Amino acid sequence: MDFTIIEAGMKLDEERHYVGHTIFTLEGHKSKYEVTFFSKKGDDWDYSLNYADESGIEEEMLQADARLEEDDDLFDALLDAAMDTMEDAE
């Protein structure tokens, strides 16, 4: 299953924690998703997955979330896209 990155961003908040997001699509899914990232030091990441626009098919959202949990390459690609925007801004 292929994915396409639409938009990404990352910044340091007031407490120097990493806060970012990546909007993406998955092949065969009707909705766009937004994964948000958070890390205190940039090494251990929490994430949250939401619809980027309006709500879509719940089963597809559950599949997307399961894929993020299981597919390290996908997770890393989405996180790298967000981190790359931060490096460009520095």
Folded structure, characterized:
The chain has 90 residues and is of the alpha+beta class. It has one domain (3-88). Helices cover 34% and strands 37% of the residues. The chain has 2 helices and 4 strands. Strands 1-2-3-4 form a 4-stranded antiparallel beta sheet, covered by helices on one side. The longest helix has 18 residues, at 72-89. The protein starts with a strand and ends with a helix.
Topology (SSEs and partners):
Layout: E1 3-12, E2 18-26, E3 32-39, E4 46-51, H1 58-70, H2 72-89
Antiparallel strand pairs: 1-2, 2-3, 3-4
Considering the chains and any ligands shown, give keywords for the structure.
single chain, 90 residues, 2 helices, 37% strand, elongated, DUF1292 domain-containing protein
Shape: elongated
Write out the strand line-up for the largest beta sheet, numbering strands in chain order. 1-2-3-4
Instruction: Tell me the structural class.
Output: alpha+beta
The tally of helices reads 2
The helix fraction, in percent, is 25-40%
| H and E order | EEEEHH
Mean pLDDT: 93
Radius of gyration, whole Å: 13 Å
* Count of the separate structural domains: 1
The low-confidence runs, each spanning 5 or more residues with pLDDT under 50, are none
- Largest beta-sheet characterization: 4 strands, antiparallel
Distance N to C terminus = 33 Å
**How many DSSP-defined strands?**
4
Percentage of residues in strands:
35-45%
Organism: Paenibacillus cineris
Protein name: DUF1292 domain-containing protein
